[in-house]
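Study this pair:
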Amino acid sequence: MTGFLRLTLLILALSACAPRASLVIVPGAVGIGTPYTIFVGSTRERDPTKKALRYTERGPLGYLSYDVSVPPNRQPGEVRTARRRGADVQRDFVATAANRYATPQTFRGAVHQALKARPKARGNVIVYVHGYNNTIADAVFRLAQLTHDLKIDDLPVSYTWPSAENPLAYAYDRDSALFARDGLEQFLEEVSQSGARTITIVGHSMGSLVVMETLRQMAIRGDRKVLPKLNGVILMSPDLDVDLFRTQAKRIGNLPQPFIIFTSSRDKALRLSARLTGLPARLGNLPDVEAVADLDVTLIDVSSFQSGGLDHFVAAENPALLKILGQVGAVDAAFGTDNAGRAGLLPGTILTVRSATSIILSPVSALAGN
């Protein structure tokens, strides 16, 4: 058996062992866990051929929100969800309520009120774009987990695009990521008009393709509503061709700052993705900063940390790494707009190559930093 075939079978086996999350509504969980309201823009529609509630079809942009309970009995980075036996509200992420907004105006009004009710946000919004093989629940619960574990004060907002929710449907998801560009652009405009002072965008895996393509087309169009409000872009384990990223970045021009890319050589999912394309690496598993050294970006190498399974979302799942990021004030302090000082806020080996900065984090440097 070839190494490529072994890697493919391993990833499919690991994916099959990790069932996708479902949005279980448990009103009785109110008051048990820590509550968060996650606002959602969705270009997904329900598959009419399936009995289960699978929102895998492509559709127009819709607006929702979910009240999520982050359970009290869990480890940082852990997102456990309810199975068929029912929800354990002490350990499982659940939704306690769901809302659908009939018009963009009602959605903007709800976001505006939420910003007023969250003074610590100071008008800042964080928009999370999920990756390949994700359900709506995966996206919503992951953003709630990140908000909770990193103590993020910004208002959490998620954009969910029509993934097939199937590890074998990579091509469908990649086409859906391109389909989702216009929806994300429209959604960002609505968030901007809701009273948001600044917007930080976080893309994971294939969601990074959605983010970069959207920013590219907004720059070409000469957007003046959203781009000036961007307070930074964070790409986590981006499943993105390096040459494509460079072309997108050049077309965008001045990249939003800070522009952070989390990378890991341990990422098995990106290793397979790279092999499928016949290239040595994806953006999210670059061995060093040289390939993007002429761009104003910061690479944070987390290869020394593991999360188990595919190691495809280490920055969100590894408790030690979450502790590092949380101790520097989550996204706000470590990824602020002061380019000269931000590198020193994270413990690790720091390299500057032309316009780019590389930070290689390790558990040893983390202990030294503490």
